[in-house]
Amino acid sequence: MEQLKGTGVAIITPFTTDGEVDYNAYSTLIEFYIAEGIDYLVVLGTTGETATLTKEEKQKVAETVVQINAGRLPLVIGKGGNNTAALVEEIKTSSFDGFDAILSVCPFYNRPNQEGLFQHFAAVAEASPLPILLYNVPSRTGVSIANETVVRLANTYPLIIGIKDATGDIASGKELIQSTSPDFLVISGDDESALDLVLCGGVGIISVIGGGLPRLVSKMIQLGRERKTEEAQSLLNQIRLMIGLIFKEGNPTGVKSLLKHQNKCGNELRLPLVRASEALNIEIASAFSKI
Fold it and tell me: How many domains does the chain have?
């Protein structure tokens, strides 16, 4: 899928000061990303604090983003869980109007083995009406899907078209690129190492920092895909400090602070996540002023 190459933004869920989803703020965010050259949007992923949203809120968030986007950018929706049967039922009973693909995270907490991961994603693939991106983020889930399992899934289920690899393991990512077909999308989910993966043949990134610095990240990835290594590396050096800062107190704490500094949305999160400390807010503001 050509439309999922380049830079995707893992979009936050904005909240009001009283803790409600700020549906109106999506308009500002989406127009910002379109104007700044983002290639596609990922809704209801980790950065969207999806674990704290109700079923009704998730549905309304999806509908709101589809309505505001109005077909201008490709859209990916997060659908994952650690109860395979419940996830399959959710996929079968959900509307995916306006979305182009599903991003499905490895089951978390249960810590299944590789056969369990294969069977989980096989069930998801059999239920899904849309192409699927696997999502490997072991720092959050406690388990990592092996390259051999990814290859097995890709070879068995044509709807499994790629993976968001948030491991930061470039050697493993390069091996996966070499082990899968040229059509299989290996997408970085790690801002710090994304350029390295692209230079090894990865097709782009689903980015957190791109949510706060969309033009710079989009340009960096574009240059990397064009093998303009020196120019791309220069942009990475420009944003490297900010990458470290936005993850200093967790995600999306940092990127919401950065967006608040740019007046794109509020700086509210839902427990157990909390707003950035004043010290971090100052660091982020200072770093942004120098970019």
Answer: 1
